[in-house]
Amino acid sequence: NKQVIFKDYISGFPKESDMAITCDENMKLKVPAGSKDIVVKNLYLSCDPYMRLLMKTNSGSVWNPYTPGSTIIGVGIAKVVDSGHPDFRQGDLVLGKTGWEEYSVLKSTQGLFKIQHATDVPLSYYMGILGMPGLTAYAGFYDVCSPKKGEFVFVSAASGAVGQLVGQFAKLMGCFVVGSAGTQEKVELLKKLGFDDAFNYKEEPDLNAALKRCFPEGIDIYFENVGGKMLDAVLLHMRVHGRIAVCGMISQYNLAQPEGVHNLMTIVYKRVRIQGFFVADYHPRYSEFLDFILPYIREGKVKYVEDIVEGLENGPAALVGLFSGRNVGKQIVVVAKE
Ligand code: NDP
């Protein structure tokens, strides 16, 4: 059983060498009699920014940090090989927390969804548009941002797993939407996805000027994925009664000290509402979300860009690549085909 092991807690940017590929020769593919364990064969693994937060002891996250010497844990799509649990049977496809390894023993079914796979959509979509990032974009935009037709929407990390959907949802709502991303290729991609405009924040470090150009009348909604300097600049452009949905702050995850944000008085002057949210709170609305999104996918009204790498051994590079913007779209690792 090939595995990706987390070596030890880190500071700074994560590196491939913070993880090691090993093999566990003692893996048993049968569940012992009387146990409720589920043995799964992992098919797809998701690379997500929050995983970096689990690589330090003071993660500040709601999840426990990784244990040095143990398998990396993340969200995956897997096929049940053997099950002692009455709700799961051999051959079922499941979506939930699993190990970065070929086969895993799942001891808890908390947050484990049985995938009723519609064969007209790729199974890998359950890692992105039909999975955690999709639900995040749905909850964050429709629930937290309280959007209205005609409003001005800005999305950072806009070409990523979550951002590309937020922008498309904003267009469906009849908003004006602009995204920021780290390469020209991503900027072009955003325009193809229907964003009204996009800019490369690496080539245009004067964020204030970029935002002024894109939003001469200001921003009603900021979907926050990156934090730091971007948040500071955006605050100066918020309109009265603007909303900021704080989804994440990836620019801060590798810093020992978070960057200071200076323009906070805007919150008072412009009566801005800033609200953080967490996708796990929305799990009870997962089936409602699937009913919402599947018709849009089938009608071609919402598109989804994936960045798929083959092979468990390429997982560490894919994961650390999130922090240099190597991924274009949702980063997925294929471990095995069905
Ligand atoms: P992405 O697919 O967007 O991948 C991360 C992207 O972030 C990179 O491709 C890169 O794109 C950008 N990035 C990396 N470092 C920086 C930096 N220093 N400054 C600015 N941009 C950077 O990831 P997701 O869509 O999965 O996640 C987006 C955000 O949403 C993250 O903050 C994540 O933690 C958060 N999240 C929160 C959830 C919740 O429940 N609240 C659930 C899921 C995600 P580029 O080339 O454009 O720089």
From TrEMBL:
Keywords linked to the UniProt accession? Oxidoreductase
Instruction: Check the record and name the InterPro entries matching this protein.
Output: ADH-like_C, ADH_N_2, ER, GroES-like_sf, MDR_fam, NAD(P)-bd_dom_sf
Q: Which residues are in the Enoyl reductase (ER) domain?
A: 56-333
Q: What is this protein called?
A: Enoyl reductase (ER) domain-containing protein
